[in-house]
Amino acid sequence: MKLVRFLSSREGFISVFCYTITAVFSFLSFAPLSLPLFVWAAPFGLFIIEKRNRGEWKKLIYHGFGFSILFYLVSFHWVYYMTTVFGGFDWYLAVPIFIGSAILLNFKFPVYLLVFSFLAKRVGRFFPLIASVSILFAEFFTPQVFPWYFGNVVAENQILAQNAEYTSAYGLSAFLFFVSYYLFYLRKPKNFLRLFSSFLSKHKNIQKKFVFAGLGVVFVLVLFFGNGYYLFQKWSAVKPLAERDVLVVQPNAPLEFRDGRNPAEEIRNLMTRIDAMTDLELKKGPVDLIVLPESGIPFFTTHDTEVTRFSRIYWHQFESLMAILSLRHGANVFYNELDADLVPTALPGRISRRDVRMYNSSVLMNPNGERRNSYQKVFLLIFGEYMPFEWMYALSGQTGQFAPGINLDLIPYYEPRKNPSSQIKNLHWEDTMTMGPAGVREYYSKDKVEEKQMGSFLPLICYEVIISEFVRKFQGDPDFIVNVTNDKWYGNSVESYQHHTLGRMRAIEFRKWIVRSTNSGTSVFTDHLGRNIDNDFTQIETTAVIRKKVQVIPGEMTFYRLYGNLLSYLYMGIVGLVFFFYAKRNS
Q1: Are 84 and 94 in contact (CB under 8 A)?
Q2: Is domain 242-553 classified as CATH 3.60.110.10?
Q3: What string of pLDDT tens digits covers the 587 residues of the chain?
Q4: Can you tell me where the transmembrane regions are (predicted)?
Q5: Taken in order 545, 485, 397, 400, is the CA torsion positive or negative?
Q6: How far apart are CA 229 and CA 133, in angstroms?
Q7: Can you list the pairs that 445-450 forms with residues at least 24 positions away whose Cβ atoms lie under 8 Å?
Q8: What is the pTM of this model?
Q9: 458 DSSP β-pair partners
Q10: What is the C-alpha to C-alpha distance for residues 242 and 285, in angstroms, rounded to an integer?
């Protein structure tokens, strides 16, 4: 009842209006609409609430939850769809899960309001650094399953985005709130006139304060826009070492069969579709690398071991088709699969189901149809690929029980075959009914080429691409980044665009191209400046192919790869010391 009375009051109306400003303006600024001008006013809702409730800590926490829920409702409404479709929960369970996740995973809003209010109360005057360091602290130290930062929205501006090479999204968040707080202060004409009259004042102390404040904001604007422009020009002029012809196949594979479809028939149709799509596109000319997405062929593996046979996930026809694709076209094939092994404590000589560990894995098959390096997903998605507690698996039959990988090596790829196949009749999916993997390799044995490593790429599965701190743990200098993902669980929503936009920051931080391969859209190629090539996105919930020449940018360890979030930590530390001595002096 208290909540109803509050929402029907004038104070409640103003509060909801402020939540809406932040939520809607952030959504308009972000993908797929990408109207970045709105982002500069998005923090206004937070500023108004903090000012009206300064020092009232309990109220600020409740208002923070209000921002969290409305922000989730506007920008992350697809979470509800995922909960019902992927999780299989009924609406009466999905709604509280949605609200609970909105609060827990957007805790940055109440934390921001508390930190901002505390500092503003201690300083007692207009000081934009307060707004800046508060959002940096809130984004750094609050949990987020789907990390979304205000800096990602600022990065929709192509020039400002280049600063991510030094600061990642965090620094752009700090920049946004610094500038936005200035704009918020000047929203009233009387404040603007006060500044103008201060400039004309004959009082030297007032003039000094005005000049200092003005020079401060000018310096920050010049620093970010100037450095962004410099980096944009610098990296635009870089000549690539080479180009790699890459084909992405988007097969729109089924996720599950709860609607009564025949699984065997659907999988046969899927394999036929992948075979035909690849063959049709490569009649135009060979490629260096074919990339299939996460869950492009679900439920199975090509890794033939005692454990995978025991788990009934090895399927010889899957391996045969991957070998046909690589041998028929003389190309590397990178595809996603399940994989399995035994836990270290398993007893020798017998396999028990409880001793089997499953992995979300991607593997490369060389141009000779031979299985080479694989990558097991390290950063697993909570509630999607694992549950934090064992008893929770009973709540959702769709949630996987995967083990995290431990290997952070790059994936080598090899020189493709330069000549067409010598076979008069090429193999296709139908031939896997009678021909196993060994038979396929024997059939194309005359086309076998010497294995020569051509380069390596950095493999990322699904939302690993949006965790900047994780991606920089990979060692070595990749030619480019390959991100395979499956966004089909989110339906025809904005999630796929948001997922990509958060991930494309890695292209700037690493100065490497990104190949994004999705099961059902949107697949796209992004260059080392964070630009989507030809703005060519595949449609959602469709089958499609997309092919581009990926540039290999000369290896250079960027500042962010070397030092991570060092600048953000230094900024928080320096500003924290300034506030400490300021508060101590005034006390």
Answers
A1: yes
A2: yes
A3: 677 787 788 888 999 999 999 999 999 999 888 888 899 999 999 999 999 999 899 999 999 999 999 998 998 888 888 777 766 677 788 888 888 888 888 899 999 999 999 998 888 777 788 899 999 999 999 888 778 899 999 999 999 999 999 999 999 999 999 999 988 887 766 655 555 555 545 555 555 555 556 677 888 899 999 999 999 999 999 999 999 999 999 999 987 766 667 888 999 999 999 999 999 999 989 999 999 999 999 989 999 999 999 999 999 999 999 999 999 999 999 999 999 999 988 888 788 888 999 999 999 999 999 999 999 999 887 766 766 656 555 566 566 678 999 999 999 999 999 988 888 899 999 999 999 999 999 999 999 999 999 999 999 999 899 999 999 999 899 999 999 999 888 888 888 999 999 999 999 999 999 999 999 989 999 999 999 999 999 999 999 999 999 999 998 889 999 999 999 999 999 988 888 777 777 76
A4: 12-39, 60-81, 93-119, 126-146, 166-186, 210-232, 562-583
A5: positive
A6: 24
A7: 446/422, 447/327, 447/330, 447/417, 447/419, 447/421, 447/422, 447/423, 448/368, 449/330, 449/367, 449/368, 449/415, 449/417
A8: 0.91
A9: 481
A10: 18
Residue that is written with structure tokens 């299939």 in the block: 292
Name the pairing type of β-strands 356-365 and 371-376.
antiparallel
- Match 């001008």 to its residue by tokens: 37
Write the CB contacts of 178 (distance below 8 Å, at least 6 apart in sequence): 128, 129, 131, 132, 217, 220
SS (H, E, C) 533-580: HHHCCCCCCCCEEEEEEEEECCCCCCHHHHHCCHHHHHHHHHHHHHHH
Take residue 272 and report the two structure tokens written for it.
């036929």
Structure tokens of 354?
Answer: 């409880």
Composition of the chain by helix, strand, coil, percent to 5: 50, 15, 35
Nearest Cα neighbor of 302 from 240, 394, 365 is 365
For residues 251, 252, 256, 262, the Cα torsion angle rounded to the nearest 10 degrees is -70
Residue 151 CB: number of other CB atoms within 10 A? Answer: 27
- Two tokens at 253? 């594979």
- From 554, 547, 533, select the one nearest 237 (Cα to Cα): 554
Which residue do the tokens 């391996």 mark?
319
Task: Spell out the domain ranges in the chain.
Answer: 1-238+565-586, 242-553
Helix (H, G, I), strand (E, B) or coil at 93: helix
User: Of the candidates 347, 356, 336, 350, which has an alpha carbon nearest to the alpha carbon of residue 402?
Assistant: 356
Alpha-carbon distances of 81 from 2, 182, 487, 494, 495, rounded to whole Å: 30, 38, 12, 12, 11
Find out whether 282 and 247 touch, Cβ atoms under 8 Å. Answer: yes
Contacts of 14 (CB under 8 A, 6+ apart): 48, 52
The 3-state secondary structure of 53-67 reads: CCCCHHHHHHHHHHH
Containing 223, the helix (H) or strand (E) segment is helix 204-236
Secondary structure of 110-131 as H, E, C letters: HHHHHHHHHHHHHHCCCCHHHH
**Residues assigned a catalytic role:** 294, 377, 462
Q: Where are the alpha helices (DSSP H) in 289-445?
A: 306-310, 316-329, 437-443
Rounded distance between C-alpha atoms, residue 247 and residue 374, angstroms: 19
